[in-house]
């Protein structure tokens, strides 16, 4: 495991501090530009909750942390099932939209950095943690991803569950598509393009949002780190998460390198399992 972790650190060379600041600024501007249309571009998928219920049983009374909650669609649906939800995001425009449109007495929306969850919430506070919507790959080096997984382990109660969803970057880097599937609704058209930085796992994510009624076009870009499934599993294991399982979507189908979605579940050991 140690050799694999050292190899990973070398392969995904960390950005310098100034580059990280620039990336964070790009990400904030990117999500602010689409905040008003986010829930239309990425509507709630009921199978997300169904898979959580398969993992956790009834959500009633469960304390759940939603990391990268965006417009609050998932947090609101979990609250409707009587979960007690803490929903965090770094983008204030998305949080403002969530607070206005998806208020529920069982949801607390909070501006917070996903790397600070252990310090913010403390030990053993949640029955479940979810991080969906390709949020993780905005962390631009694997050490930060490992630190996030360590934070997840800290805030989970013994036996607690973690669910992660990103795109399958094994498939993406094997095929190197220049575009992702077009997202089109009656009122918007969302085009997504990838530009690959040679010799790295970094991707420039370039988008164009067209508002059909007005004809307004919003161009933007941000950076992503295309982490592979085996490397994610290694980082979770190094962080101490257990019972790691990979799926090909929220339907719980087996993971395949030919499928674009990647969903991963993991657990914190029960107290009696800890030696």
Structure explained in plain terms:
With 275 residues, the protein is of the alpha/beta class. It folds into two domains: 209 residues, 3-Layer(aba) Sandwich (Rossmann fold), CATH 3.40.50.150; 52 residues. It contains ten helices and eleven strands. The strands form two sheets. A seven-stranded mixed β-sheet has the order 3-2-1-4-5-11-10, sandwiched between helices. It has a four-stranded antiparallel β-sheet with strand order 6-7-8-9. The two termini are 19 Å apart. Helix 6 links the parallel strand 2 and strand 3.
Would you summarize the structure shown here?
With 275 residues, the chain is of the alpha/beta class. It has helices at 2-11, 17-34, 38-41, 46-56, 73-80, 92-101, 117-121, 142-155, 169-175, 229-239; strands at 63-67, 84-89, 107-111, 126-131, 156-167, 183-184, 188-196, 202-211, 217-225, 242-247, 261-267.
Strand arrangement within the widest β-sheet reads 3-2-1-4-5-11-10
Measured between the Cα atoms of the first and last residue, the distance is 19 Å
Number of domains as seen in the coordinates: 2
Radius of gyration: 18 Å
Largest sheet: 7 strands, mixed
So, the CATH homologous superfamily of the largest domain? Vaccinia Virus protein VP39
Indicate the low-confidence ranges by residue numbers: 16-23
Number of helices: 10
Helix content: 25-40%
Order of helices and strands: HHHHEHEHEHEHEHEEEEHEE
